Amino acid sequence: MSEPLLEVSNLTLDYNLGTRKMRALDKVSFSLDKGEVLGVAGESGCGKSTLGLAIIRLLPRVAEISRGEVIFEGTDLLKLSEEQMDRKIRGQKITMIFQNPQNALNPVFKIETQMVDILRVQNKYKNPGTQKRRRDFRQEAIERLKITGIADAEARISNYPFEFSGGMKQRVMIGMALSSGTSLLLADEATTALDVTIEAQINRLITDLASQYGTSILYISHNLGVLSDVADYIMIMYAGRVFEMGRTDDVFGNPRHPYSAALLESLPGHQAKGNRLLSIPGFVPPLDRLPAGCSFHPRCRFAEEMCRQQAPPLIEVSKGHWSACLLDQKRGRQKWQWI
Amino acid sequence: MAVDLIQIKGLKTYFFQGKGLLSKWFGKGLKIVHAVDGVSLTIRKGRTFGLVGESGCGKSTLGQTIFRLVEPVEGEVFFNGRDVVKMNQAELRKFRQKAQLIFQDQFGCLNPRMSVGQIIAEPIVMRRGQRKSQQEIAQDVAALLRAVNLDPDAAVKFPNEFSGGQARRIGVARAIALNPEFIMADEPTSGLDISTAATILNLMQELQEKMDITYLWVSHNLNQVRYMSDDMAVMYLGKVVEMGPTSEVFDQMAHPYTKALISAVPQVFLGKKKQAIFLKGEIPSPINPPSGCRFRTRCPHALRKCEEEEPALIDLGGGHLCACHLQSH
Predict the structure, then answer these.
(1) Which ipTM score applies to this complex?
(2) pTM of this prediction?
């Protein structure tokens, strides 16, 4: 076993909105090894994007991390100063790809200008003191565009973002994000805005480049199908907590939490037409008014008295497979058949 | 045997982009966007017809042309045997009572300054010939809200007080207010969570069974189209490349584009990883579509013939049509 690249333990985060305090992450713990892909899934408002932002420390000011550690390559990121984050981590060791490439690129500058800027800053921190000419940066930017599969990169680099399609813009973002120095890539719904064929291309590109450079990926998505394609491990989140975690085949093939089973059953594709899909009753509760006990109990078909009173811990139920369900823990493995 | 509700024949919708008057008068510099380019299809009554394709393939434009929100350049759209393209304003008004739309942007299509009750009542109030008292209308609205599993109290609230899934259901309630025969649903679950999307799919199936509604289901989510539709068509750059009963198309897909599209759909697969077909490049511009077969620039099997000659839709048996030269070989 090598040392994990990223180890998050007991990460707890609140959003302080005046009188209301929303717990967006509640004792989230996981670890990610070099070269692995961890998929994070859950409904909107479950805290999956907050998790990504917390790791790279791009949270809004109202967010407060009350406890926990984010150990990345041996250092606790939460203890670093803003300047250290900028100099060593953000855009260098850890990079992020966002859902909407449209908003991530500045519309009034050419692709070239934006990429050269990034490369210049990266170079300044990586090799302080060295002088490189603009032409060299431009060449490097073209190389990166080529790696991401943009045809005719020499000419296209002088285009403006609006002249690129959505898929190409996302390629530019990946080109900026992935370089030999990056060891962790945070992809937050990176392909949600794209068409299926382009989505498949981009996901292939991300995973190929990552394995080429030995980059680990935290892949955040609500699309379980995409996650099943790209991820080695899956983490299912609900209302700020980790409900289930394990190898992709274990979590999707043999879910040990009723919530994971429910998500799988609400996907069209496994049932014949005419059979109703599962829709989980109720809604994700607001984070400042979480129910006592297991936060999923009001929506869970299998909930019992103990679920209302006791919050379930996340326990390793079989090798490398973690689940936070009291029923599963007390009664042993069950088949969570919702319909 | 199901009756045909909608028959589309050779429908073409073009958009014209010009730089100014000169191009208008002399056709100079005029660009023609071939959004829908010769589509023929039939939608059976009481069934769901799925229309899939990537963005920019013309699927939404096709839907809008059926309602004449966009005027076609050529072609016919028969609704219950009457040509919508030739209808005058009065006839159109009647047609639009029987045919309704559910939009992709669930909040964008609800006026934020109107209460939900007003929004749902609007089609009822607008209908000519039938005067209803305030009380009757309120009863209708309550019944509609109940039909889409919302509380009748919702009538006094405003759209911003609802979640995405609820807003979508308000859109559905408005669409069914006049007992329509036909509803076009344009990406009806985009932007919704998995479980919420399932609620909408269940609701729309229920309504179909209860009210015998015909759906045109426009989506790029193939899993959903497979689950919801009876017949389907795959569009690429304004043309139908494959069409037929949904089970046929999925089990015996014939067109290379359909194969690539279906293989690219992310599925929760266990054990073995499936082999996705990766298409080269992206969808070309509909202003200057490629000659011959429009898919040839991205097709892994393109022949010389594909460049020269446009493939016609050929019946592979059982109403399963495919437009590909490889099929006739």
Answers:
(1) 0.78
(2) 0.84
